[in-house]
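Researcher: Re-running this chain for the archive, since the previous output was lost when a drive failed. Same request as before.
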Amino acid sequence: MAAFAAVLLVAAGTVGGALIRGSGGIEGLQQVITQQLDASNNTQQSDNGSAQSQEGSQGDSSDQNSWDSDQFGDSQQWPGSSQDNSQSQETLSQGESTAATVQQSAGVVVVEAQLADVNGVAAGTGMVLTSGGLVLTNNHVVEDSSEIRVTIPSTGRTYSATVVGTSASRDVAVLKLAGASGLTTVTLDDDHDLTTGDTVTGVGNAGGTGSLVAASGTVTALDQQVTTQAERGTPSESLSGLIETDADIQSGDSGGPLLDDEGEVVGMDTAASATGRSVGFAIPITTALTVAKQIVAEAGGSLALAA
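Model: Regenerated structure tokens:
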């Protein structure tokens, strides 16, 4: 059994594999209750075979023309504390977890969502898609939230964020940071043909500590399907076409990047084992970006990314 890799900071103990702190009782996060394996794990498949090629130039300031603070949130910024993220870059041994390097952390953010229906905060990770502050994360990180704040670990700066839109069935959400400009974006690899055995690294807010951790591993299977059941009573959901990895994806890593051996994003960390085994699942970045573009378009904007 595996739990979605977000962290719920509420009652002391653990619920559904999620780290929880504070006081008061709460039912927990969604769990993977079944996993279906594709007979062929040699070729990565995109969502419904319709993943779109990405156009535009990464870091282009033109995205700010479509996304202004009046439309997607006010200019309030949360106070943040500076953090030292100047670790030297090192090559991880397989299965090793360590503080993420500057290169691995580029464009990766910490997401905290105040939950509307409970006295708690869900903690996850996100990826900056545009310099003007569009952020990709999992829907389950921000679902049922009343307030969201996003921190750039390298600078310690924290922004208030609003939800541009979500896809619950694909577990994808797009956020807009209020008053953001000139942000570093993640480097996307949306045409990488993954194969089993490829080296990958998951990066995220493991344990909800607010610091970014990198966990190395390999691709163990492709085109995986899992069915999830939420302990809070929401209907079960199926996610398909997932990348399976033995990288130690943990609670809090949801929405963070799965990097290839060149440090480019090939997936979005989404679920992890709750049984003590290092089995993680990531949505292929081609799938996540296709959904993100649809979300942004439905909100009346456009999303131009590096090819």
